[in-house]
């Protein structure tokens, strides 16, 4: 994906130049960004369906192993929710995108629709969640309907037990196909980024660049503070381990993640290094792959901050109620999207589509800096999973602190030739990663 990353960077730079030098021409290129966003929207329903169904299946598998699985799931859900909330708080404090007022005509239309009676709107909302058939949610593009069908299908397959395993395997293959298609679509990202950035910069000039810089720098700072302060406190209170010692120990893995923009690339090495650090193999085998599906701290922060940015940039900020509703949706919809290029973008579009369809077009704007923020997302996700593994190992008394001290001092160095064995968790990895 290195070539795609460089192509997106080059496209963003070219879009900025075109928007500043030839503003009218830049504004005429808006359809390129819109076309790419429509391609992403096309994938929202199948991605959400597959990830939710398989996510429920992986929770069931993890819960069956007993205390470790239940503890891991509870920890991950709390931390993901906390990360989403942090993203909302920071987004409300920074107000990124204020003053841009993109696409005011659609906003006025949305506000007019929102001014209807409360009881009528509530009734329409509830009825709108229920599809006319199991497949109509896919054809009509309703995210909430797809979410409902996915939840019902996931729990239904869970109740079927062994009889449902062939269907789950079929959905696994379907998910691979969906993500392969998404990967193909992502190769059009440079074109979409060029058109979106050129149009926005052509319409707003330097204000757009300032707003993009605010949200990007704010996101990086938030991730750094989250890892060093929040995760650091949890690691010290839960296992009496310094976050900086752990980060130094995983330095090579962080470099690998930055070079690939995906935390999945370092999954095998994280398993090996956590075992070498002194966490028992069963705890590592349960916690790491489950965390890769359910503990996406960096992605959670990104989703809420990006959503607030898009809403503010279009002059239609989300109300407190809408933000809470969005948080609940993201808690569910963000599961199972780790390590897949473009899945975070599709989840972001899905959240907007379900709550404020008039704002989905703004995804093309955030596309210009999405690749710049992907490294911070991946590194934060990885750090969160490493901390969770050590903490849960300590809570279950399956963590050798003496060995960890030797490892951190350099007395017991990690053998770089070691290849991690993954016999304990193949089904979890398949279901969630």
Question: How would you sum up this structure, described in words?
Answer:
The chain has 433 residues and is mostly helical. The protein has a single domain (2-432), classed as Proton glutamate symport protein, CATH 1.10.3860. Helices cover 79% and strands 0% of the residues. The chain contains 21 helices and no strands. The protein has helices at 2-21, 23-27, 30-64, 67-94, 104-114, 118-129, 136-140, 143-160, 165-186, 189-204, 206-239, 243-249, 251-260, 267-277, 281-294, 297-313, 320-333, 343-355, 363-395, 401-409, 426-432. Helix 3 (30-64) packs across helix 10, helix 3 (30-64) runs antiparallel to helix 15 (281-294) and helix 3 (30-64) runs antiparallel to helix 21.
* Global morphology: globular
Number of strands: 0
Q: How helical, in percent, are the residues?
A: over 70%
- Give the CATH level 1 class: Mainly Alpha
Approximately how much beta-strand content do the residues carry?
under 5%
Total number of distinct structural domains: 1
- Structural class based on helices, strands and sheet pairing: mainly alpha
Separation, N- and C-terminal Cα atoms: 18 Å
